[in-house]
Write a sequence for this structure.
């Protein structure tokens, strides 16, 4: 889900950049220096994870992972995703520099919403509920991201509407795969290292952990 | 995992002060992305192509990068020529091809290619470490630069962990198929990557604190602007000024 350079209209670019800036400011405010390496190395893991190809029938899709990113990082998803997208723009020319804000909002805003929506389920006692929470997180993050992508295209001009509808629809199978993937990932982390799924605020104070 | 494919070389772009390259690329990209005159877009594309050619990079690798850029553009070409309202020029069944649609698609194609080519030529020719250094000098918030630097630094490390885990799965006869077993195994692989990177980040932080890290990256050496850097700065400013004037002035579309 990358919009390339030169597609979006100026007002959409400006609005998205302001929104990304606000999210970034909130995300950085929460990051004390001692959490930088943790968020950064987890971002590297997400970057590597997004290179994994998952087969669906005859084709394969690559993972977006913004659901699990939101569950783990909360507001820090904004700086994390921004940095990963900036690296992709510089190293691979995926996306771009001017659309960086728009692409960040498309992935990070759903991630933060998912964090508040699903964190209770994912951290609860029941493994079943946590699995459902993980599935919801993965699927909803892709769904919301696709809607934001379609919305930003449509806002850029009437002509983009059909392309936007197709782009959103094409994400439906990804939504299902990403949901399953996130659900399994959550259940793995709960068994192996549950503190990763706690917020970073409680991590530094083990007595507050859930 | 080799990420900086274009950073080695001896062209003028490889030797240029990265601060100028970042500023130049950023202003070029903003002006090019916002321009809506075909003449400015053609000029931007031609400039970017000349700049890219003068960087003396491996043609095949550059071509494969540009092909990726044009994936999304090609997707838009399937729709925009037919969905834009305007003067019809051809009819294919129930699809009406409009002049405005073709102009819009062309303009998107030129902008996307111009900016991508300039990005390869300007940012690709610096190592990420130099770019980070330049970002600190350009007063980009220190926290963000640190995050950028560490994320980049550990991508290849984590990728190595990934290939190791993947080899382990392969040795145990894992072949990806479209089934739950595949999705579960790959999700556990990703989970394991999280666990490894989490533990590694703890060790990194402890090692940094041990060496006196207190939250800021200090820069010990500074960039020096050579005469060629000043010339480059003036040339870039002229190109960008020309684009702005071309955009704002009347006359040619």
């Amino acid at each position: 889900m990358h919009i390339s350079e030169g597609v979006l209209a100026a007002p959409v670019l400006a609005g998205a950049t302001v929104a990304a800036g606000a999210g970034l400011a909130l995300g950085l405010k929460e990051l004390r220096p001692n959490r930088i390496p943790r968020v950064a190395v987890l971002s590297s893991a997400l970057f590597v994870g997004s290179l994994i190809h998952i087969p669906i029938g005859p084709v394969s899709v690559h993972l977006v992972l913004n659901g699990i990113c939101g569950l783990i990082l909360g507001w820090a998803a904004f700086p994390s995703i921004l940095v990963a997208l900036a690296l992709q723009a510089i190293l691979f020319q995926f996306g771009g520099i001017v659309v960086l804000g728009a692409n960040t909002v498309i992935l990070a805003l759903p991630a933060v919403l998912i964090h508040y929506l699903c964190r209770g389920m994912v951290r609860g006692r029941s493994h079943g509920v946590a699995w459902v929470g993980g599935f919801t997180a993965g699927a909803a993050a892709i769904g919301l991201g696709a809607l934001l992508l379609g919305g930003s295209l449509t806002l850029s001009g009437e002509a983009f509407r059909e392309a936007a509808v197709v782009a959103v629809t094409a994400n439906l199978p990804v939504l299902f795969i990403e949901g399953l993937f996130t659900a399994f990932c959550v259940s793995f982390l709960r068994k192996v290292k549950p503190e990763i799924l706690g917020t970073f605020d409680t991590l530094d104070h083990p007595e507050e952990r859930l | 995992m080799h990420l900086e494919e274009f950073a080695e070389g001896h062209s003028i772009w490889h030797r240029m002060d990265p601060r100028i390259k970042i500023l130049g690329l950023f202003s070029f990209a903003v002006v090019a992305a916002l321009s809506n005159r075909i003449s400015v877009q053609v000029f931007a594309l031609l400039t970017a192509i000349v700049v890219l050619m003068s960087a003396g990079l491996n043609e095949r690798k550059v071509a494969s990068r540009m092909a990726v850029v044009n994936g999304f553009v090609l997707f838009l070409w399937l729709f925009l020529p037919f969905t834009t309202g305007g003067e019809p020029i051809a009819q294919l069944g129930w699809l009406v091809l409009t002049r405005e649609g073709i102009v819009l698609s062309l303009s998107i194609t030129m902008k996307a290619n111009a900016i991508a080519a300039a990005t390869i030529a300007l940012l690709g020719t610096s190592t990420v470490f130099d770019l980070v250094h330049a970002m600190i000098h350009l007063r980009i918030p220190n926290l963000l630069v640190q995050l950028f630097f560490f994320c980049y630094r550990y991508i290849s490390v984590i990728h190595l962990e990934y290939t190791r885990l993947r080899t382990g799965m392969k040795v145990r006869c894992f072949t990806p198929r479209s089934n739950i077993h595949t999705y579960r195994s790959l999700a556990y692989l990703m989970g394991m990557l999280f666990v490894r990177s989490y533990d590694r980040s703890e060790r990194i932080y402890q090692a940094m604190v041990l060496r006196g890290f207190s939250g800021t990256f200090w820069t010990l050496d500074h960039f020096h602007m050579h005469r060629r850097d000043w010339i480059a700065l003036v040339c870039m400013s002229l190109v960008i000024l020309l684009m702005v004037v071309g955009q704002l002035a009347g006359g040619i579309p």
Summary: The first strand of chain A starts at residue 53 and ends at 56.
